Amino acid sequence: MEKPLDLTLVIDIGKSNAKLLLIDAQGAVVERHSRANASVTSPLGYPALDVQGLQDWMQATLRASANARRCGHVIASTHGAALVALDEKALAWAPLDYEFEALALEGAAHTAFAAANNFCKTLSPELPAGLNAARQLHWLQVTHPEAWRSTRTLMPYAQYWAWLLCGVASSEVSSLGCHTHLWNPQAGSYSSLAVARGWAALFAPLRRAWEVLGPVGAARAAAWGLPADCQVHVGVHDSNACLARYIAGHQGTATPTTHAAAGQAPAAEALTLVSSGTWTVLMAPGAPSQALRAENDMLGNVDVTGRMTPTARFMGGREFAALLDGASPGAATPQSAQAILDTATLAVPAFSQHGGPFAPRAGYVVRDGKHLQGPLSQHLDDAQRAALAALYCAQITAWLTGQLWNAPDTITAQGRVIVEGPLASNPVYMQLLQALLPQTTCYASSDAVEGTARGAWMLAHWGAGTPGVELQRIASTAFPGLREYHQRWRAEVSAQTPHR
């Protein structure tokens, strides 16, 4: 007797980790696998995404799975700033790692390239290394012209995995509109830069993230351990998969459900969604585009329906880890956070130079006005370092929320703030964020499945009335001196040399 095709396979590829989740029709995870994700050296000598390593791992894992043969749907959610090129039948060149520093143009080349991008049209700021995916195309075209000449088709990273699974090439707006310089969000078309350079003509046809491209088919089924008639969906940019759970137009998710104590959150209320991971991405549907400032690494992303979404972000996962200096995030307590406030221990950005409003600056920690030299573990215990990391990320989250909604003092920011990902399970971060944004109502996603993977699962069943989002409302917690501390932190940040 054949097994029912009652599971959905979600391929969730982040910059640091990759996951495979097999999810049933009720949204429960039946099987989960993960592995670290890192770049490899390409045949041309540059750092590249490890697509072959990931493919080998996925295929071996799924072939060994007792449940993979029950998958009726498969969809990929991947990090942004990643493009894949095909020749007539395979990779034309290995997809570049966006952290490759040589992608950062200098001098006249930088000036010319920046001038070709109209921020008012693309809402895509100039970012470090290859975070503007157009820089990757430019670099490859100039540095490796022979490899470039073999390019027949371009596609975003999520759609590459869909192509591998079913053989149908496609492109999708949430990845194209992710600070690439390649998309004009307000016009809903390729940018003038993409057209002028001939790149637009190379991209595979546009399809919606939730659309079905076709079945896996018999030829691929054995290699992947999946049924031949498993339906392959187009796929999505990871942060936008998270947002898809909340945007209007998807039955069952337009108004999130919450725990009984929290009540029902009004659908019309202003929403800021915080998707955390390697990157902490803030998305504010309906926020004014006029508030976007390129110098603060603010941009206009594009949601899965094609609508522009004001967005800000910082490399929160990396910065959090830097401040932990080996401590566990769970070591933080309200008491250790209060000790950080009482001793005026400030973490001044930035602790990652790969994007965010303060990226080019070198971060440092001061206590009572004195710089702490050497490893933080020499000055602060585990609980204090974990609290400092939570406080630092909460302050930047609150500051960016205010910037998105034109409420720069943050005290006046209103509406809902919903946190997904690792930060949602950090109670001290959530308590501090609520205290920093007293006029908002903060919620933590209580879903055991990451927002990116859950959103991708919902997209594979778009319009089918999947379960609503379970949220935990954050109670107000008093942190004496927090407002004065935050003002002092902002003054310290403002005193630094303008970063752009």
Helix-strand layout with pairing:
Elements: E1 7-13, E2 17-24, E3 29-36, E4 40-41, E5 47-48, H1 51-64, E6 71-78, E7 83-86, E8 91-93, H2 107-116, H3 119-122, H4 133-143, H5 145-149, E9 153-156, H6 157-166, H7 173-176, E10 183-184, E11 189-190, H8 192-196, E12 212-215, H9 218-224, E13 231-233, E14 236-237, H10 238-244, E15 257-258, E16 271-275, E17 280-283, E18 298-302, E19 308-314, H11 316-324, H12 334-342, E20 345-348, E21 364-367, E22 370-371, H13 382-404, E23 415-420, H14 427-436, E24 440-445, H15 451-459, E25 470-473, H16 482-494
Key phrases:
500 residues; eight-stranded mixed beta sheet; 16 helices; Nucleotidyltransferase, domain 5; alpha+beta; 2 domains; single chain
Report low-confidence residues grouped into runs of 5 or more. Answer: 249-267
* Class inferred from helices and paired strands: alpha+beta
Proportion of helical residues = 25-40%
CATH topology of the largest domain: Nucleotidyltransferase, domain 5
**Shape, principal axes of CA atoms:** globular
CATH homologous superfamily title of the largest domain: ATPase, nucleotide binding domain
> What strand order characterises the main sheet?
15-25-24-23-16-17-19-18
Strand content: 15-25%
Gyration radius, to the nearest Å? 22 Å
The major sheet is characterized as: 8 strands, mixed
| CATH class descriptor of the largest domain | Alpha Beta
What is the rounded distance between the termini?
64 Å
Keywords: Kinase, Transferase
Family: Belongs to the FGGY kinase family.
GO molecular function: kinase activity
Pfam families: FGGY_C_2
